[in-house]
Amino acid sequence: MKIAIIGAGNLGLAIAKGVLHSNGATTMYLTKRNTTEIMDFEKYGNVTVTWDNREAVKKSDILIFAVQPGHFSGILEDILDLLTEKHVIISTITGFSISKIEEIIGSDKYIIRSMPNTAISVGNSMTCLCSNELGEKRIDLSKAIFNRMGHTLEIPEEQMQAATVICASGIAFWMRLIRATTQGAIQLGFDAKEAQELAMHTCNGAASLLIESKSHPEEEIDRVTTPKGCTISGLNEMEHQGLSSSLIRGIVTSFEKISQIRKG
Ligand SMILES: NC(=O)C1=CN([C@@H]2O[C@H](COP(=O)(O)OP(=O)(O)OC[C@H]3O[C@@H](n4cnc5c(N)ncnc54)[C@H](OP(=O)(O)O)[C@@H]3O)[C@@H](O)[C@H]2O)C=CC1
Ligand SMILES: O=C(O)[C@@H]1CCC=N1
């Protein structure tokens, strides 16, 4: 697999680390305009770091775009004449529709829209995918690439905006919840390091319970909330303070913001 990551910033580098951890590429190009801070990646023999998107495109089959939305059109226009039938174009760009990509490079290309998250760097991304009509022929290949770095779900393109909030922004939301739990644990007497250890492993355990037992969160909550016990007292106080409501409102606000990004 010859992979190019065009835009080796926060997400692009997370994908690069995921690819490296999973031995997912024979060669990998990483591009950005200022390459100084990522030259270290060339210590991996199969990685080339360059500012030259055209070189990366010529030498690769799988092109993963991870630039900011405002930069994407210009980059596509710049590499358009180099695109051939060997290329699979995978966009991670928020709010940039497949039809908009097709307007620039044509519908006769394999186009995949993906929405991974930064946990891809440790092989644990929840990645949603969809494709243009021709790209359906490469959706299994694309799933295979992302399945090596976590879990995938193929969704209709209309749900991509929602998937961005839940899966990609979701990492930040969960981080804040883990951080708040850590602050609570510190107030109860744990030192900062132990407090974070308790918070993140408990979070991991909660997710694992749902993934492995396929149960509903409320079933698991019922198993923890001893009648007249401390859990239900704390949980009800959190709800009186609007825990679920504030999460849902935040999710909807992020979703609405993407519509503004789409309009440019
Ligand atoms: N961060 C995340 O968790 C997620 C982000 N996304 C999407 O991924 C995209 C990237 O986001 P994020 O990583 O946060 O942004 P960053 O700004 O961290 O990364 C974008 C990178 O693109 C590079 N870049 C800019 N212009 C060019 C160019 N002409 N050629 C090559 N590289 C270029 C920039 O480096 P330089 O200036 O040196 O060129 C920068 O490193 C966005 O569209 C975002 O919506 C999607 C899911 C999750
Ligand atoms: O915040 C953003 O706009 C991007 C998309 C999802 C994660 N980061």
UniProtKB/TrEMBL annotation:
Recorded GO CC terms: cytoplasm
> For the Pyrroline-5-carboxylate reductase catalytic N-terminal domain, which residue ranges apply?
2-93
State the superkingdom: Bacteria
Q: What keywords tag this UniProt record? A: Amino-acid biosynthesis, Cytoplasm, NADP, Oxidoreductase, Proline biosynthesis
EC number, as in UniProt: 1.5.1.2
Binding of NADP(+), residues: 6-11, 66-69
Q: Which reaction does it catalyse?
A: L-proline + NADP(+) = (S)-1-pyrroline-5-carboxylate + NADPH + 2 H(+); L-proline + NAD(+) = (S)-1-pyrroline-5-carboxylate + NADH + 2 H(+)
First-level EC class: oxidoreductase
An example Gene Ontology molecular-function term: pyrroline-5-carboxylate reductase activity
Does the keyword NADP belong to this entry?
Answer: yes
Tell me one Pfam family matched here. P5CR_dimer
Q: In which pathway does it act?
A: Amino-acid biosynthesis; L-proline biosynthesis; L-proline from L-glutamate 5-semialdehyde: step 1/1
Q: What is its main location?
A: cytoplasm
Could you say which protein family the record assigns here? Belongs to the pyrroline-5-carboxylate reductase family.
Record function comment: Catalyzes the reduction of 1-pyrroline-5-carboxylate (PCA) to L-proline.
Q: What is this protein called?
A: Pyrroline-5-carboxylate reductase
Organism phylogeny: Bacteria, Pseudomonadati, Bacteroidota, Flavobacteriia, Flavobacteriales
